[in-house]
Structure formats: structure tokens, C-alpha cells
Design goal:
alpha/beta; single chain
Length: 438
């Protein structure tokens, strides 16, 4: 059987999904203390709407948006606001955060739904969109773009297809896989809500062929609807928006463009699940499923975790680190970020914590001159010339890099993975992007 995929480039790194793919989602006990960043999304940070000493309940707004491209932030546990602090995010920048602590003798007071609106699909698009906005939902695949903004395209860009991204092409990560296995109906209902908001009659779910059990579950959940589940070829970066659109709809997003330019909205599996919970139960985005996996962790798991929980507590819940642990990554090994501080909190976009063994972790301190082999060009799914972008960046010729379509690179890391000279190509590309405007 042949499966659909994108035509250019792509690579096949070891999947390593077997470490956690069969491990059911485990609800992690409520932490005593959470540190909740006021900027967990692309766009304007939130302004704190609470004061030190104030009692808050799980699900209560503690940060209000200060712009359209933003999303409110909620308390993930019931407790007292004890401080405002600066916290280091996984990507390395400092942001303001609210600290909430639960009294040691206080029982867990989990969020409880105030309603159960079984007729959510009968609500108006504006009402559904309002619920999504109020819940603070953002893209949960890592990009963290506010969902209510993404489903508000301008009138001149009509949408005719919604795709749920179930590819989960990053090595090791299995959170989306488990969500599709354990909450398939919720994901499909979330997709129906997104279709209703956008006035779309056709929906799609794209899943790589290495998840046959999830494909079966999603086919069952989508039965009788106008939703098509597509099986995709195993190839990285199959889950990138532009690659997914090409694979499923054979549409090509133009250079410098967005999916809406070709009439498509793409959302993550976790996001679809959160949309359903928000529109039916009014649940804010205060927890998410996180894969804690890798050869350097003693007991890989898929944990449902409160936003603001320190990464160190997730590692403890999984039995701690093996003596062979070498590097801890937020996200996957291809596009993730190495942790500097294990007190860094889980945020809305934290899809996984990957602990690599020392033998699998490579540094960027030893690399060599480009040998012009062209492997990076062959691997690039966008048809770019990563070697030139890297060289221009290394020499400080950032404007020249822009002329080579610098901003069409979505930083999948395929070029760096295949480079025999071990050059930090994608890191140099990221640097160039900070030095010139799109």
C-alpha cells in the first residue's frame, strides 16, 4: 500500500517511538507549587490580573491579553498567589510569571466543569470562537499561535479545508499518539467545531503509518461524518504545516505565505481535544499531555500535567535520570531546545521532554568546513540551499541569506542532521533570522 507524502527532501531518523507509545496517559498528581508564565504563546504577553496574597481557583484567569494576537492565562491549581517572578522559558528567554502555591494540608481541588453543553455544535461560530478564546487555547504542537486568531482569517481568504495534524513526526514523541488512542471522539468533535466555525464542510486527519492503532481509532470516531482520515508515509518533517497540506491536498503554500493563502487551517491533535473541552465544558487550557521519554530516562511515560509544573517533577515521576543521561530537550530532538534549568515550567506548547543518552547527544562545538556535498539540499523539504544560508550567516552576510529565501525555512533541522561536517546549519539560519527583517 502506498501512502501520501510531500515530494521534496525529507529524512528518516530513528523513530524511537517504542519507548512510550504503548504507555497509557497517566494523570500526574497536582503539584504544590506552579510557576505560570504570562507569555506562553506567539503574540503580546498577558498582564497579571491578580495580586500577591490573593486566593485563586483552578481555571481562574490570572493573566489577561493585551492584544488581539494573545491568549489569556489561567491558574492550573487552586491556591494562593505568592509571588511574581521571572522565569526562563525553554527557548531561552526570560518572561514574567505568576507563582501559585497550594497549602500543604489542603486537598487537591481540581477544576470542575460548571456546565455540560451537549448542543455545542448548535451554537453560533462567534460564540464557539469566544469560548476558545476565553479558554486560552493555543497551538499545542509547539508553535503556540493563539487558536482564536488562527480561525479568524480575513474575508478575502476563505477556508475550505481543516486538517488535524496527527503525524507527530518528531522522533521519540508519543503524546499525540496517545491522545488519538484514548480520546479519539474528543479530537474528532474538536475538528467538527473548527469546521463549524469556519463554515467548512470537509475535514481531514493526517496520521503517519507507524500509528496503525491510532488510525483505526480515528476512523471509527470519524465514521458517518464528512471527515477523512489519511494515512501518511513515515518521513520527517511530515507534520510541518506546509508538508501536511502538500501531502493531503496537493496544494502548495506560496513563498512567504500561510496555509490560509491556499484555503486551509491546520491544527494539532491536542489543540482539537482542547477545543472540544472548552466548547462543551468551558474548560480552560490548564493541563496537557507530555511525553517524557528517551534512552536516558528510567521509566518513559505520557503524563497529563498541570501547566506551570517544573520539568524536574516530571523527571522524578518517571523514576529519574539514568547514569547515561546526556542531554534533556524540550520538544523533540529535531526542533526542540536543550534545557538550561530543570526548574523551567511546563507550558501550553510543551509536547515532550526527551532525555538523550550521552552517546546520542552531540554538541555544536566541533564542526568542520562545508565540503559542498549537497546532502543538505537533498534533505530540505522546501527546496532551499541550506549550505548557502549557513555560510552567509557564518560570515555575517545576513542580507545575502535573505536573498536565498531565508524566511521560507521553517527550521526542521533536516539539513543539520545529514551534514557530514557536523555543521550547526539550522542554528546559523536561526541566527540570520534575528539579524534581518522578513
Amino acid at each position: 500500500m502506498s501512502f501520501t507524502t510531500f515530494p521534496l527532501g525529507g529524512i528518516h531518523p530513528p523513530e524511537r517511538k517504542e519507548l512510550a507509545s504503548a504507555v497509557s496517559i497517566e494523570v500526574m498528581p497536582q503539584p504544590q507549587r506552579v510557576v505560570i508564565p504570562l507569555s506562553q504563546h506567539i503574540g503580546a504577553p498577558c498582564k497579571a490580573s491578580v495580586e500577591v496574597g490573593q486566593e485563586v481557583k483552578a481555571g481562574e484567569v490570572i493573566g489577561t491579553p493585551e492584544g488581539f494576537v494573545s491568549a489569556p492565562v489561567h491558574a492550573s491549581i487552586t491556591g494562593k498567589v505568592t509571588a511574581f517572578t521571572s522565569v526562563l522559558m525553554p527557548i531561552g528567554r526570560m518572561v514574567q510569571a505568576v507563582v501559585v502555591e497550594r497549602a500543604a494540608n489542603r486537598p487537591d481541588e481540581a477544576w470542575q466543569p460548571a456546565e455540560d453543553d451537549k448542543d455545542y455544535l448548535k451554537r453560533s461560530p462567534d460564540e464557539l470562537k469566544g469560548r476558545i478564546k476565553a479558554a486560552g487555547i493555543v497551538g499545542m504542537g509547539g508553535a503556540t499561535f493563539p487558536t482564536h486568531v488562527k480561525i479568524s482569517p480575513p474575508k478575502e481568504k476563505p477556508i475550505d479545508a481543516v486538517i488535524i495534524n496527527g503525524a507527530e513526526c518528531e522522533p521519540y514523541l508519543t503524546a499525540d499518539h496517545r491522545v488519538m488512542l484514548e480520546y479519539p471522539e474528543s479530537v474528532i468533535e474538536g475538528l467538527k467545531i473548527l469546521m463549524a466555525i469556519l463554515g467548512v464542510t470537509k475535514g481531514y486527519v493526517g496520521i503517519e503509518s507507524n500509528k496503525p492503532d491510532a488510525i483505526t481509532k480515528m476512523l471509527e470516531a470519524a465514521k458517518g461524518s464528512n471527515i477523512e482520515v489519511r494515512t501518511l508515509q513515515i518521513k520527517y518533517p511530515q507534520g510541518a504545516e506546509k508538508m501536511l497540506i502538500k501531502s493531503i491536498l496537493s496544494r502548495e503554500v506560496p513563498a512567504g505565505g500561510l496555509p490560509m493563502d491556499v484555503g486551509v487551517v491546520v491544527q494539532n491533535v491536542g489543540t482539537a481535544n482542547a477545543v472540544y473541552e472548552a466548547c462543551r465544558y468551558g474548560k480552560p487550557l490548564i493541563e496537557r499531555v507530555v511525553s517524557v521519554t528517551g534512552g536516558g530516562i528510567k521509566s518513559p511515560k505520557n503524563l497529563k500535567v498541570k501547566v506551570g509544573t517544573p520539568v524536574s517533577q516530571l523527571i522524578e515521576t518517571c523514576g529519574g535520570l539514568k547514569p547515561t543521561a546526556g542531554k534533556i530537550i524540550s520538544g523533540g530532538p529535531m526542533m526542540g531546545f536543550a534545557f538550561y534549568d530543570l526548574n523551567t515550567p511546563v507550558i501550553k506548547g510543551t509536547s515532550g521532554i526527551v532525555v538523550l543518552e550521552q552517546k546520542d547527544a552531540t554538541g555544536s562545538d566541533k564542526f568542520y568546513n562545508c565540503i559542498r556535498c549537497g546532502r543538505c539540499v537533498d534533505a530540505c523539504p522546501m527546496g532551499l540551499m541550506p549550505l548557502m544560508l549557513s555560510l552567509f550567516s557564518e560570515k555575517g552576510h545576513y542580507a545575502d541569506a535573505k536573498d536565498y529565501h531565508l524566511f521560507d525555512c521553517f527550521e526542521c533541522g533536516s539539513c543539520t542532521y545529514v551534514c557530514p561536517a557536523k555543521r550547526p546549519i539550522v542554528q546559523q539560519i536561526k541566527l540570520a533570522k534575528t539579524q534581518v527583517k522578513p
